[in-house]
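Researcher: Please predict.
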Amino acid sequence: MTSTTATNNLSVDEPFLIGGNKFQSRLIVGTGKYNTYERMAESLQVSGAQVVTVAVRRERLVDDEGRSLLEFIDTDRYTILPNTAGCFCADDAVRVARLGREILDQLDNPGKQWVKLEVLGDTKTLLPDPQGTLEATRILVDDGFAVLCYTSDDPIMAMRIKEAGATSVMPAGSPIGSGQGVLNPNNIRLILEMLKQGDPDYPVIVDAGVGTASDVAIAMELGADGVLLNTGIAHARDPVTMARAMRHGVIAGRQAYLAGRIEKKLYATASSPWSGVISYIPGE
């Protein structure tokens, strides 16, 4: 994603700053659920993403042909964000996070001190367990991790996670993999307002539930700093084309947010002014 200079002396869009690193792309994509590693690699490339997330616990790092997932991810190009998907308690999440760090330490990848933290409540809703999430956040922060924390769209919970030391709070647009988009935009607005009060550069990333480019654009128009997604691309009929669409959705949403939308009004407002309009008198 390229930086955008708005007209009329609006400021230049700043790079996406997270975990002490600067990125041009505000789209983070997952590496799971693809039919083939080749399709995954092509989708990552056209998405423009610079950060990709890998499920340390659930991801098959080696396929039926003995090929490693990491063989298809250019670790010089992408920052790898290990995630704790599939963990249902704080202890498991902490253990998986440390395993991810060991794997990436061998690759000397910038993401080796990062973790996308997920502590889930059940297998049906995949909603986060608030207590387990907070507990794991505190432990991992103390252990030196930059914690990017998946949570619900509850503003109070989001504040608690930030107070626990998370590098980024990542509220869900809707349940994981549901494709329902941003169900509660007002909650996302509240989270943005509360977390950025006095700390405008604190990164808030909408994570989960987006299904198409318009969902991504809406999240960005609300003021989110970025969007993380996987299923919306991997399970699309044409993942590569959808990855390109998601890339443009992030760009369009971010530009619209920076530009500032017009106020919504009850009545119409003419595009051309009424003053100076030539009058028509019948019969003349």
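Model: The longest helix spans residues 239-259.
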